[in-house]
Amino acid sequence: MDTHRLHTSALFLLLLVIDAAMVTEAKLVPNYYRKTCPRAERIVTDVVSQKQLSHPTTAAGVLRVFFHDCFVSGCDASVLVSPTAFARSERDAAQSQSLPGDAFEAVARAKTALELACPGVVSCADVLAIAARDLVTMTGGPFYPLRLGRKDALASSSAAPDAELPLANSTVPRLVAMFAAKGFTVQELVALSGAHTLGFAHCAEFADRIFRRGNKGGGAAPAPHDPAMNPAYAKGLHDACRNYQRDPTIAVFNDVMTPGKFDNMYFVNLQRGLGLLSTDQELWTDPRTRPFVQRYAANQTAFFADFARAIVKLGVMGVKTGRDGEVRRRCDMFNGNPVPGG
Ligand code: HEM
Ligand SMILES: *[C@@H]1O[C@H](CO)[C@@H](O)[C@H](O)[C@H]1NC(C)=O
Ligand SMILES: *[C@@H]1O[C@H](CO)[C@@H](O)[C@H](O)[C@H]1NC(C)=O
């Protein structure tokens, strides 16, 4: 009996040790590149800052790409893989079509600089995480320290983004469920939605809110629009998007008041009916999310603290470590891929 118990506890200890080893391996650390590429973060910061100065839409694009990367199969740069003649990738998904080229270009440039300084060392998943953080900070948002050591995915599914990402017309209960399924609270959903303080959305994403049945003829009557929307704002969007079906590239600012600044204006806007997407405005309408909108609209410090905590959490979702991944040489292709034209 005693022997049995001894064996059992020995086995238990052994399992604990194995478990601890696996946890340790999967754990990201702050100074991951201290020995192998000490200037890694500095290099990314320099490159993306330059890019942001010349192309001010970069910050929003990179932040959104980071969200799409992490929310779909983990923060593993699967979103960066380009399709080839032989294989589709996440970029083929409908939900990926509006991800802006400047964001991919910023990451590619940072990676090129890193490959010159320390070839084959810094993963694309880490580059994207650092770039998103730096651009949030650079546009006025919080700085948050990052743990590094993510590996790059060995797969990129064209079906996953549309299955896993919310749509602009998702209901709040649906958003809450989708975020809960990934381990996020209602408050974290609201805090992360504050990312829409930056960037653009294309008219098709909110057309249902401003072109309602009965107004297709464009008569003199005021535009019937989503009653949750501020009428003057609806009119402005109606005008801006008038030709969106002919020109689907027309896009407007997510935050109409301070579009290029990472601040809490997004939440102030929601209180005034100035939310652009249905999913934005409904955070104010729904009694579950409304108190957090109120809190962040009143207190930017609280928003920044909660956003930082939530995006750090987003940034460790489903990370690949060890043999589950690789350090890509180029962010847009797996190392195993044949060289284009070769
Ligand atoms: C809550 C659910 C969310 C929905 C339904 C949603 C949906 C969308 C949509 C439809 C757009 C417009 C895309 C376009 O037309 O180009 C957009 C833009 C954007 N989203 Fe979200 N999003 C959500 C959450 C997030 C989160 C959590 C983040 C980051 C933490 C984020 C960051 C962004 C950014 C920065 C943009 C602007 C992109 C640009 O200007 O290129 N979104 N989002
Ligand atoms: C929501 O939007 C998607 C694509 O943008 C569309 O296919 C779908 O029909 C919309 N759903 C509702 C309920 O309007
Ligand atoms: C704003 O939020 C911060 C962080 O939660 C808190 O320390 C501070 O007291 C709040 N300020 C006000 C005016 O409520």
Give a description of the structure.
The chain has 342 residues and is mainly α. The chain folds into two domains: 3-165 and 315-324, Peroxidase, domain 1, CATH 1.10.520.10; 172-314, Peroxidase, domain 2 (Orthogonal Bundle). It has 14 helices and two strands. The protein has helices at 2-26, 40-54, 58-71, 101-117, 124-138, 160-164, 172-181, 186-193, 207-210, 231-240, 265-271, 278-285, 290-298, 300-314, and strands spanning 200-202, 251-253. Strands 1-2 form a two-stranded antiparallel ribbon. Helix 8 packs across helix 14. It is globular. Residues 13-25 have low confidence and may be disordered. The protein binds protoporphyrin IX containing FE and 2-acetamido-2-deoxy-beta-D-glucopyranose (2 copies). The site of one 2-acetamido-2-deoxy-beta-D-glucopyranose has 4 residues, from helix 14.
Short overview:
The protein is mainly alpha-helical and 342 residues long.
Please tag this protein with its features:
single chain, 342 residues, mainly alpha, Peroxidase, domain 1, Peroxidase, domain 2, two-stranded antiparallel ribbon, 14 helices, globular, binds protoporphyrin IX containing FE, binds 2-acetamido-2-deoxy-beta-D-glucopyranose, pyrrolidone carboxylic acid, secreted, oxidoreductase
Given this structure, which CATH class of the largest domain is correct?
A: Mainly Alpha
Give a list of the ligands: protoporphyrin IX containing FE, 2-acetamido-2-deoxy-beta-D-glucopyranose
Proportion in β-strands = under 5%
What's the alpha carbon Rg, rounded to whole Å?
Answer: 22 Å
The number of helical runs is: 14
Give the CA-CA distance, first to last residue. 66 Å
User: Structural class of the helix and strand makeup?
Assistant: mainly alpha
> How helical, in percent, are the residues?
40-55%
CATH-level-2 architecture of the largest domain: Orthogonal Bundle
Question: Care to count the β-strands?
Answer: 2
- What is the molecular shape? globular
Question: What quaternary form is this?
Answer: single chain
- The number of domains: 2
Sequence of strands across the biggest β-sheet:
1-2
What's the SSE pattern? HHHHHHHHEHHEHHHH
- Biggest sheet details: 2 strands, antiparallel
Q: Averaged pLDDT, please? A: 91
Low-confidence residue ranges: 13-25
Any idea of the CATH topology of the largest domain?
A: Peroxidase, domain 1
Protein name: Peroxidase
Binding site for Ca(2+) 2: 197, 255, 258, 263
Signal peptide: 1-26
Disulfide bonds: 37-118, 70-75, 124-331, 203-241
